[in-house]
Amino acid sequence: xxxxxxxxxxxxxxxxxxxxxxxxxxxxxxxxxxxxxxxxxxxxxxxxxxxxxxxxxxxxxxxxxxxxxxxxxxxxxxxxxxxxxxxxxxxxxxxxxxxxxxxxxxxxxxxxxxxxxxxxxxxxxxxxxxxxxxxxxxxxxxxxxxxxxxxxxxxxxxxxxxxxxxxxxxxxxxxxxxxxxxxxxxxxx
Length: 189
Fold this sequence. Notes:
Blueprint: H1 2-21, E1 27-31, E2 46-50, E3 59-64, E4 75-83, H2 88-104, E5 111-113, E6 124-130, H3 137-140, E7 141-144, E8 147-158, H4 159-168, H5 170-179
Parallel strand pairs: 4-8
Antiparallel strand pairs: 1-2, 2-3, 3-4, 5-6, 6-8, 7-8
């Protein structure tokens, strides 16, 4: 029971942090059940959906509940995904990321295949974990009652971009993104 209370306080703190960061945006929070045999991996998972507004012109989806998974001494991660539209598929994609994190302990520079394009017609079928460049360090650093969470960006990328990263490194891929001024929410990029 103590673990549940601690986890609930962390989820509430993440939600408060996200609502504060995205002040003047509409923010909804939904409990997300990963289903049988998976729900214990990320108990109490919530997905926060943030509408476009003064801080960002795209939708943002943020996990609350990953913090305790693979966290060390009160420190863990949550994830943010930006998208061009509101769609439940993005909540499902973040829930899949949360489950993958529970098994593989995702962190900066890690990636995961998603088995299909993140949006119809897109070539992006992998997710790359990085710093939340679109939102900055004020979103990234999330204080919690018993530690902190680091909110990391879940960026849809292509298999070719993953191959480039394997050959040239994570920083080289990020430089390439900067040079080409990619629009992360563009499914046709």
